[in-house]
């Protein structure tokens, strides 16, 4: 209330017979409430107050007095507490009158007025907030609704999960969150257009609804992702049955324009625990979706798998830091000629000694590097490090040594990096010629993109580098690729080599690979040579070189050159 108005009211004569005239000047409903010996009454009001009462559930001033100024209702309690408080503070009250669509919402404010005799008085002003509240509710409803499907959206789904958690505590019924991801949606959207994509989403949502039971809640939580809260009346099996019903509902092809398209989906499930955060539960179901995409069946979230995933993210962060601060090192495993026993070269292997975790295996950090894209940085570092090390050995020996260095190339590198520029730059910086370098690629690097692999192989050969196919026999070998690509060396995987002494089939596979390599004019290297017997057998079968713990474990940069010299002296003495 403006100070001038309040001052004017305080100057009114005791009966305040004309107070209503001043109240009529106020732009909002207002009334003067008196409290005399605990009895509340309206001593004056303006016309707007009367209009507000007329459209309320009270209907009239008599009804208002009966409904709000007596008894223990909300307004009566509010007024009584204010008058009994004995202070002159301004008090506010938000109240709802009525229910359903006819409900009205008011904001009440009490301001003290001078007492008249024994009667304490206050100015009650009323602001009708019905339109504002309804607008807020409409806006909130729009914010919580997916405009395309009409389903609750991601934000609303979190509230649904929270409500289910509160209900679970009272009715002892468990719940599960399912996340359904529509596969191949981006491909359909790109090839048929966004309108067809929207039509597919709407139809997909309808089928999901048909697969749910009463009480289950569905929301669209992403572009082609849907979330479902399922009540577990009979335990965990209810969640898996819900997933089965969804998969069954999607068996019938979707008709778009004149095409019939089969749409598959991946389903991840997470079981709700006590006091579990809604966001955490939803993320758990999303994590299970990733596993479902890999396995091809619905997957239930396992905390152990999530812990491993968090470790991978942690390793990704620390690997990026390790590359920036040069924490990684390179080890060199000798490649030994099985006929002469001389060291013909070294395979460069990345090693990571973490200051807190200790040694982290390449089998753990290299897949993380490939998944995160750090393999490009790691691969360039390995190439530069290996070539500079070999150049350093030459400088230390004072001559060009008769050894080469082998560096592994990831399929991700072949697909994303400019391999020719990387290798050419490393050779220029180190001063080496291409014939001192062996590039090892797995079969997957070839199979993923044969045309690009062919271009890379040809470019590497133009640099005079040699190319080896690593882990031969464990992937998707194609004789056509072996015949067409300029491959110099086939490396026989250790899984075949280690079983030669006990498994006749392994011997047959190794013999076949050796015969194939000879027919194609390729050299051969056996991995995992762990004993003299294996080395002798491989040499007898015609394998050219081998590597493994029988000869030496991977050596540091400082130990590799002395090892080469020691093998050279031993061979000369034996001769």
Automatic annotation (TrEMBL):
InterPro entries: Biofilm_reg_signaling (IPR052155), EAL_dom (IPR001633), EAL_sf (IPR035919), GGDEF_dom (IPR000160), Nucleotide_cyclase (IPR029787), Rev_trsase/Diguanyl_cyclase (IPR043128)
Ranges where the GGDEF domain occurs: 173-305
Lineage: superkingdom: Bacteria
Gene3D superfamilies: 3.30.70.270, EAL domain (3.20.20.450)
Listed CDD domains: EAL, GGDEF
Start and end residues of each EAL domain: 312-568
Classification via NCBIfam families: GGDEF
Protein name: Diguanylate cyclase (GGDEF)-like protein
Organism: Sphingomonas kaistensis
Lineage: Bacteria, Pseudomonadati, Pseudomonadota, Alphaproteobacteria, Sphingomonadales
